[in-house]
Amino acid sequence: MADIKVIATGLRFPEGPVAMQDGSIVLVEIERQTVTRVRMDGTTEVIAYTGGGPNGLAVGPDGAFYVCNNGGFQWRTEQRLLRPAGPSSDYTGGRIERVDPKTGAVTVLYDRCGAHKLLGPNDIVFDGLGGFYFTDLGKARARDRDWGGVYYALADGSMIKEVAHPVLTPNGIGLSPDNKTLYVAETETARLWAWDIVAPGELAKAPFPSPHGGRLMAGLGGFQRFDSLAVDGGGNVCVATLVNGSVSVIAPTGGLVRQIAMPDMFCTNICFGGPDLKTAYMTLSGTGQLVSMPWPEPGLRLAHEA
């Protein structure tokens, strides 16, 4: 097991960690329906109550938090692990929200793209040009599930467009260090897809038989599932991996470099922080923990987090 330090416990399915300049980590607690600040001494502070299911989180150009809200889950505890178990009874759809970091005020920016309602927004990354890409994983029900998609939107609420569809359970999303490649992790297949970015919100599409225009970078064998991701400074894509409980490091040229084991099968997110960006922070959602460990390469500094 890696040199893992437990920072906080008792969190209610934490995801979306963001390393802040003051040394704290801001994340979401999906089951608790909050945006929460976690300090390095393990204490927590609720910044905002969003309702629904706050999932992905990022800092925008105005310093506010932008939240992918999946609309809410039902919850189940099995083998002492908390996990989602289908849409909540009050689910009506998903949304993208802006959270004021000072007041906690929550504003809905988008709940649809044209005629199509957002179903289960999951993860988000800003491009530094006033916009952001996000995944919509959709919802799984007892006998069927939604097709997901990838979207691009402006932070001022003025424009949203679909850039890739259909995608089976798109989850983690990130950008290459040169901002020329978009990465999306597909949960149920444990596949990592990539698209070349032609212009903000415009992707080059691979031809059939690609189902959505992406090119396959990597796929893991066995029973593994991909969640959210972060990119390091060398361009490696570090994907939180479910079931086997690890972080899978995938080279920018494709192929698995290594896997780092975690003490929770629901290792859901990773981000980089610290003065040299060589500390990795992971959410272990099943057991409700935020943990950290030294990372051999510095992480990629994200737009608006400098």
Give a quick account of the main beta sheet: strands, pairing sense, barrel closure: 5 strands, antiparallel
- Uncertain parts: none
Q: How much helical structure, as a percent, in the residues? A: under 10%
Query: Number of DSSP strands?
Result: 29
Strand content: over 45%
Q: What structural category arises from helix and sheet content?
A: mainly beta
Task: Tell the overall outline.
Answer: globular
Please work out how many helical segments DSSP would assign: 0
Radius of gyration: 17 Å
Within CATH, the superfamily carries the name TolB, C-terminal domain
Q: How many domain modules?
A: 1
CATH C-level class? Mainly Beta
* Straight-line N-to-C gap: 31 Å
Order of helices and strands: EEEEEEEEEEEEEEEEEEEEEEEEEEEEE
Tell me which CATH architecture applies here.
Answer: 6 Propeller
Mean pLDDT: 97
Instruction: Quote the CATH topology.
Output: Neuraminidase
Features:
single chain; 306 residues; Neuraminidase; 5-stranded antiparallel sheet; 0% helix
Structure description:
The structure is a single chain. With 306 residues, the chain is an all-beta fold. The protein has a single domain, classed as Neuraminidase, CATH 2.120.10. Helix content is 0%, strand content 53%. The strands form 8 sheets. Strands 18, 19, 20, 21 and 22 form a 5-stranded antiparallel β-sheet that branches. A 4-stranded antiparallel β-sheet has the order 1-29-28-27, with no helix packed on it. It is globular, with a radius of gyration of 17 Å.
